[in-house]
Amino acid sequence: MRGRPGLSHPLAAFLAASALLHFAYPLTLRGQLWEMLYVLLYPAVVFLGVRVVRDEGHRLVPVAVLSVVFLAAGFWAALHPAVPTARLGLFCAVVLFQGYLILKLLVFVFTYRRRHRGETGPQLIMAAVCAYLLLGGVFAALFGIVEALWPGSFEDSLSSGTAVDWQDLTYLSFVTLVTLGYGDLVPVTPWARSLATAEAVAGTLFLTTVIARIVGAYVTVTQGPGTEPGTGRP
Q1: pTM of the model
Q2: CA angle 46-75-160, nearest 5°?
Q3: pLDDT tens-digit map of 9-50
Q4: Is the pLDDT of residue 152 over 60?
Q5: Spatial distance between the Cα atoms of 86 and 102, rounded to a whole number of angstroms
C-alpha cells in the first residue's frame, strides 16, 4: 500500500465506497435504474481498493479490463434479474474481486510494521475495517451462489413461500458475520447452514486476530525498538 502512515485519502475513499456498497442496497428496491446505478459501485470499489493496495509500478490495466467484464455481468443481471446464469456470474465475480481485495488488505495489515518502522496510524485500522466489510460482501455473494444453484436454500420466515433475493442475502450475511441472528431469514439446507456457520466463525476469528494485530502494532510503536515487552524499559 502506498503513502505514508496517517489518513490516506485513497483509503478513506475506499472505505466510504465500501460502506455505501454494503449498506445502501435498499436503494435497488426502488427500481431497475437504481439497481443499475448500484452496480456501478462494484467496479468503483474494486478500482479504489486495488489503487490502495497495489505495489509501486503495477498498472491498473488488468483491473480496468476485469471491471468492464464485471460491469457487463452486472448490467446483464440488472436487466434480466430472472435469468439464473446472469446472477450466478455476477456473484462469482463479486467473490473473486472482493476476495482478492481482502487478501491484499490483510497482507498490508499484517506487514504494516515492517513497511513503516516506528510509525503507525489510521491506515491500519481503516484497512482492517475495509476488509471486514468486504468479508460480509463475499459471503453474501456465496449465499447468492448457493441459492442460484439450489433454489430454496434460504427461507424468509416473515414471508413464507416467497423467493429470497440478493438484498435479503446481503442482510443475512452481515447479521451472521456479527453473530446477531435475528432468525427472520434462515438457511434451511445443509450446505447453506454450513456456509452460514463458516461465516460466523470467520467473523469471530477476523475480529480476534486482526484486533490483536492492531493492538500489537500500537504497543510495539509505543515501546520502541529494544525495549522489554510489557515494561517499556530497555
Answers
A1: 0.81
A2: 100
A3: 778 888 888 898 889 888 888 887 887 788 778 777 777 877
A4: yes
A5: 24
